[in-house]
Each structure stands twice: as C-alpha cells, then as structure tokens.
Amino acid sequence: MNAHASFSTTYFAPAMRQRQWAEGSRQVVRCRRVIDETHDVKTFVLSAASGHMFSFSAGQYLVVHLTIDGTRVTRSYSVSSPPTRPLDLHITVKRMKGGLVSNWLHD
Ligand SMILES: Cc1cc2nc3c(=O)[nH]c(=O)nc-3n(C[C@H](O)[C@H](O)[C@H](O)COP(=O)(O)OP(=O)(O)OC[C@H]3O[C@@H](n4cnc5c(N)ncnc54)[C@H](O)[C@@H]3O)c2cc1C
Fold it and tell me: Which residue among 29, 35, 76, 94 has the highest number of C-beta atoms inside a 10 angstrom radius?
C-alpha cells in the first residue's frame, strides 16, 4: 500500500531537519507490515518512501490521503508507535462497519 500522508504538526531539532519530515509536507508512505491486533483492529507499520525519519510527540496524528476507486479521500489516524522510534510509524485502525477507508485498509 502506498499513501500520501502529512503530520498535523511536527517538532524537531534544526540540526536534524534535512533528514526529517518537514512540518505540513506530504510524503509517500509505504506499508511495510500489517499486525493483526484483534479480529477488527490492525496495526499498519509505515515508512517514508524517501527514507525520511519521523519526528512526533505523543498524541499526534497522521492525515492519510488515498485514492480509492478514483475518489480522493482523507482520514486521520493517531500515531500508535512511540516517538523514540523514528524510522517507522504505526497507525492502528479499527474496521468500521460500512466505512470506506478502514475496510479498504483492512482488506
Ligand atoms: C484526530 C483523529 C484521530 C483518529 N485516530 C484513529 C485511530 O487511531 N484509529 C481509528 O481506527 N480511527 C481513528 N480515527 C477515525 C478515522 O479517521 C476514520 O473516521 C475511521 O477510520 C472511519 O473511516 P472510514 O472511512 O472507514 O468510515 P466512513 O466511510 O467515514 O464511514 C463512517 C461511518 O459512517 C457511515 N456512513 C458513511 N457514509 C454514510 C452515508 N452516506 N449515510 C449513512 N451512513 C454513512 C459508515 O457506515 C460508517 O459507519 C481518528 C479520527 C480523528 C479525527
């Protein structure tokens, strides 16, 4: 799965800026792994296609932009991995009955 995503906000030390995802910018993220948490909850392990590192604080969320069947859709997902792991970023998504994006991600 490839998706464009942007952070709500990011905080990072200026010296690290070049290698980190700039605030408000969009990047392609790739899903590297899917973890089944329960029958209707999955965790998606994402990394930036550019190799940029993630920098975030607890409580931040990712805005995911997808094109599904030709329709552009946007959804927000809280980051479920700790800020101490900058190389990948986890989102944990619950399948919602009749929901477009959660079911597309799960299936
Ligand atoms: C800041 C933030 C963080 C979030 N973090 C998470 C997270 O960590 N994990 C998570 O799982 N979710 C999270 N969400 C929710 C997530 O963004 C999505 O809203 C969720 O996944 C449902 O999206 P969907 O496309 O599957 O459902 P949608 O397609 O948006 O549908 C939602 C519901 O509305 C119903 N519906 C859709 N269209 C119609 C219609 N025309 N008439 C009647 N009913 C309709 C659907 O059946 C479904 O029950 C977060 C939201 C926000 C704002």
Answer: 29
